[in-house]
Amino acid sequence: MIENIVxxxxxxxxxxxLSFNQADVNFATGPLLIxxxxxxxxxxxxxLRAVQLRHFGYMFSVMKGSTTATAEGIxxxxxxxxxxxxxxxxxxxxxxxxxISLGGAGAIFWMWMIAxxxxxxGFAESVLGQLYKVKDDNGEFRGGPAYYIKQGLNKTWLAxxxxxxxxxxxxxxxxxxQANTITDALENAYAIPTLYSGVAIIALAAMIVVGGLxxxxxxxxxxxxxxxxxxxxxxxxxxxxxxxxxxxxxxxxIYSAFGLExxxxxxxxxxxxxxxxxxxxxxxxxxxxxPHAAAGAAxxxxxxVSQGYVQMLGVxxxxxxxxxxxAFIILLAGKxxxxxxxxxxxxxxxxxxxxxxxxxxxxxxxAICLFAFTSVVxxxxxxxxxxxMFKLDNKPGRLVYTAGYLGMILWGxxxxxxxxxxxxxxALGLMSVINIIAIIWLTPTIVAVCRDYFGKLDRxxxxxxxxxxxxxxxxxxKGIW
Length: 481
Hints:
The protein is built from 20 helices and two strands. By secondary structure, it is mostly helical.
């Protein structure tokens, strides 16, 4: 009965494609959510006057002086790294391969396009995360969609619904699936028993998450630049090794994106569909996850909009940089037309092996483990941020939550998870629907706060914000601003 209900909901949300699987990224995007997310990106691109293009260079400048945390919040750089910990996962390695194998090289162009409009969505939701953040019992910042739904829209029931979906998805199930990814990779590559790997993951994760958001942010601050820069350097090396093939590859991407090659209209549709769906779910723009990291930051300058730029940079880095690295590795290896049954991480491993030999498989196995583990840790932070909503932001509440989280990691490391993946699909899909409705509903607030920031920036003033600087919705209950 429950499985039938889950299947019916997922059919509406995701269509009749494959189930989302954070292990091998079979994440099918169906009509409802793909239309909602594309509309949301275009909507905020229009309402914010293409902020992702107008202020593209400024987006990087906001990161200057962003490494200093305060007693109340993590630094902006730590917030960026924490959000990237969750964003940057196996999807960057396997999801891109799936897009290419199903949609051809042209899927990469549409992945880039959806990232550009997704930057506006990520900007908007992160502004709200900062604007409606609160302080927990330890005096630290908490926030996210549940907070801006409750305070900005005064819809407590909807905020609770979002929190429950997030608890189930990010707090428990997604970490189990990522643990399964790691243990499978280690078992297949090195014959390490899944139980041993699962216990090791629990031990490492426990040491990090016991420090709460600050501990997770410190880990992310070290791990994300290390794994990101390492992967980029490998991709750049491969690109320079094949520099003469680069112009033809880029032209192939453009021609394939518009169906200008021999494959025709059928290939055009596949390229658009697969490029959009992989781009949307690689960068998580619109799902409501990233505002939790944005809310935890002490912004620099002291204005909610500054975190919009920081997290917009996260969308750019995830999709336009890391996903592009994987695409170049695959296409320069000539592996666009994968053998039957080859896709996902296997395609990426084979492509890298063509470039650098057998060590390519070892490198990808190591990358999978590191990328997936950072997601395990960041998922904990998102769930913990919502404990405050249920008055569980105390030692007993955290203990119960942490025990459940670690238990799911152990279970996930050894389990076969198709049913849980389907339930995770439903949780994430419902999260996205609720969040998209909320941020579009709060458009006047987003526009008003952004207009305040843009105006001060245009006048050469340092943008600072305090309650009353502009007319916004939700005056009955405000966050710390």
